[in-house]
Write a structure and sequence with these properties.
Elements (H helix, E strand, L loop, with lengths): L1 E12 L2 E12 L3 E5 L6 H8 L7 E6 L2 E2 L5 H7 L1 E3 L12 H10 L6 H6 L4 H18 L15 H14 L4 E5 L7 H16 L3 E5 L3 H7 L2 E6 L2 E6 L1 H5 L2 H8 L4
Helix pairs in contact: 3-5, 3-6, 5-6
Length: 253
């Protein structure tokens, strides 16, 4: 069953077609990668799915919901979370507080009630704290819960951003260049984490340049070049596709 359906998706910036007639269907419970050379339109596609960029034409459906023109917070409330290529954490808040922010989106009391310590918020706050610690433990950074997030190493900040996204209890997680800036050992740990996320029942959709990571964890790969989908299939099928090889290596003729 397809959890996310992207049909005929286009985004134009003046005369530039950043994404053109994109067709992507993502199976529930899968790990799907969107790859392509720099400037291929990958992050633009992510921004269209999550409502950060408006759609020129085409449709996006999540389950039976048409999310094509929904605002980002409404898309998030339906069960889609994401991370960004450039890490976005609250550097002056603790690691634990960063994840608790993500959980407050699912709180019955809300972040303002908690901040004002209104009646009935104490029990809710303890529940949120406990759940945040579970996410930090899952992401392998629980020992750093009470230090400022800005003091974490780069790879740990990546893990924190994923933990915060998972705290919102998504059905689908979009990861934009999660391996960017990581060393080989950190990338290996990331691959294991992504597999564990899928094992939780969360569908993963990622944009990534690290081909070793993509080919080792993905069920299906879609390839963009100049905003156009040029190939799709299993990792082995995509690796052997002449159009993909040409897009990455260039045409010698």
């Amino acid at each position: 069953m397809s959890l996310l359906k992207i049909n005929g998706l286009c985004r134009n910036f003046g005369g530039l077609k950043a994404v053109c007639d994109l067709e992507v269907h993502i199976k529930e419970g899968s790990i799907t990668a969107l790859i392509g050379p720099n400037g291929a339109g990958k992050t633009t596609a992510f921004n269209l799915v999550t409502g950060l960029t408006s759609v020129s034409s085409g449709t996006i459906h999540f389950h039976d919901h048409d999310i094509t023109r929904l605002q980002p917070y409404k898309i998030a409330a339906l069960g889609i979370a994401r991370t960004f290529q450039n890490i976005r954490i609250f550097a002056n808040m603790t690691v634990l507080e960063n994840v608790m922010v993500g959980l407050h989106t699912r709180s019955s009391k809300g972040i303002f009630a908690a901040a004002l310590k209104l009646p009935g918020t104490g029990k809710e706050e303890r529940r949120i704290r406990d759940e945040a610690m579970k996410q930090l433990d899952f992401s392998g950074i629980a020992e750093y819960a009470h230090i400022n997030a800005g003091n974490l190493a780069f790879g740990q900040q990546r893990a924190l951003e994923i933990a915060r996204a998972l705290a919102s209890k998504p059905e689908m997680l979009l990861l934009d260049e999660p391996a960017a800036g990581l060393n080989s050992q950190e990338t290996l740990i990331l691959g294991e984490m992504i597999g564990n996320i899928r094992d939780l029942g969360i569908t993963v959709f990622l944009v990534e340049h690290d081909m070793e990571l993509v080919m080792s964890i993905s069920d299906k790969v879609f390839v963009l070049n100049n905003g156009i989908l040029i190939a799709e299939g299993s990792p082995s099928e995509v690796q052997c596709n002449p159009e993909v090889i040409k897009a990455y290596l260039g045409d010698d003729e």
